[in-house]
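writing this on my phone so excuse typos. first protein, seq and then structure
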Amino acid sequence: MARIQTLAGEWFEPELPNRLLKIAGDIRDAGGRAFLVGGWVRDALLGKACRDYDIEVYDMAQDALVPILSKYGRTNLVGKAFGVIHLAMKGLSLDFSFPRTESKVGYGHRGFVVHTDEKLSFREAALRRDFTINAMGMELPELTLCDPYDGIGDLKTHTLRHVGPAFAEDSLRILRGVQFASRFECTLAPETVELCRTLSLDDLSVERLFEEFKKWLLKPGRPSLGLRAFLDIRLNEYFPEIRPFEGSWEALGGILDKMAELRDSNEGGLAPLTDAQKMEFAFAALLAGSAGTSLKFLERITNEVHLLKVVPPLLETFCTLDPAIVHDAPALRRLAVKLGGLKLLCLLVKCAPRGFYACESTGGTDFATTQNSNFATAQNSDFATLQNTDFAAALWDSAAKYGLLESAPQPFLTGKMLLDLGLKPGKQLGEIIKASFELQLDGKITSAEEAIAWARGVI
């Protein structure tokens, strides 16, 4: 098995299916050349395992390749215009494509004319790629590197540099630059920044926009570097709803990186966040300084109902949260009802810079006088006990104490219970359940038995 020397100087033996190596040998015997291309090469040089095999075949026509592939499994020409042959084998599927050029002739990502040409050189074919780090190939079976645009040099210096003028033909590449900056801890080359600033995102669908934002915020990496690229390109002018946190983009970057740290952790030994919760947490972090415009932004980039419902009220609470609440069980319970549980709020508070909440020591800055808060008149609080403690930890502990992290309280009293007590269906059932639930949130009713006993007294 061939080995690769990674950028760190270590020898790495990538996982390659034997059937792929045999196919590559057959292609070579027939006069062709097979290259692994794109993300697989980049990841292998970083020492990362990758099973996303994209194979580009040179010096061989489609009609000559199909019989070779058919010996190994079922073939299907899935994109005749793009020259892509899908090979389905037991336990393995592979896509084989041909070198091609692309010409922009219309609006949107479908407005391209594609020309396949097996006689193109690797250098010529790679001109259609977005960034140099994605324009490398490794010839099979030896894994000989082909790097016509010094992608390995840019990978070493953590630089995102566009390959050539064709970059401008797909405006999605602007946002790809943002998410790649985060995932691979890169900065954009100055000439790439300048080119991106000349492009518009107006031709992109909501779905394509949303996918790139998700990759930025949800894939492993440093999302603060994605934010830096976002600002370098001046995408904050295109998305003015995304605002700095307390006037600081640096603070927002810190929140994003803390979010990435907490997103996949098993915080407090609780169940991991669901995929939906991770998404809600990530977009709330991005919009931590944008409570008033969060809904407008989300409506521009997604149709995900749960994001539209969860993120705006979560941010509203995050920005107006009174630290006195850690001593106020009824208020915590009501907040959990509003948000469907307090876990995301607690995680978001953990991301806030120290000093954002008045109870935290700020080295001399009195945030209580600068924040819109009711700190001075808060009830059931003892701020002295919070002055030098971690508010985020105190909030988490209080929410955990009352069982409010994972879910919100549910009424003990139900309609069936009231019917069993002889009450007839009608408006009164809802009113009694609501009144009972308020007492439950206040801590005055602590069980279903107590709720039934209370109901007997008011019927």
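second protein below, same order as before
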Amino acid sequence: MSPLPPRPARPLGHHPGPRPTPPRRERAAVGGVEVLPFAVLIFVFGTLLLVNAWGVIDAKFAVTSASREATRTLAESSDAGPGDAAARRAAEDAIAAYGRDPGRLELSGPTGSLVRCGTVSYTATYPVPAIRIPVIGGFGRAFDVTSTHSSRVDALRSGLPGEATCGG
């Protein structure tokens, strides 16, 4: 009789069998847990940075509005003395409308003269804290936000002495 062909050691379609299991203490372990506290810190500091950046932008809007309102009020008044007092009140009202403390506003001016075709300006400055935490408040003084606004007095205004010399 002829010899039989040699048999393979295992059948060709057979699954190789179970792998050895890791020790029980390593099952379902999640790698990278130690990074979570750092991720939370980065999130918190990033949020604080955005809040502070928005505080600067909001302060810029507020001082721009304050200087604009002060200049407009003086340019529309008929006397420089009462007009300056009204302009300062208008600037404080504009700052208060933004939820800011009017006592911290520094308003310098007016520059220019209240005559027909003259130009008047005010400069408003407001301090911005170095760090501002929404519920607690601000700490430190990082820098001042400043805005200057100029306005031309109308050439055809009544109530002002002299003639218009706009040259145009």
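The beta strands are 106-112, 119-128, 131-133, 137-139, 143-152. thats all i got for now
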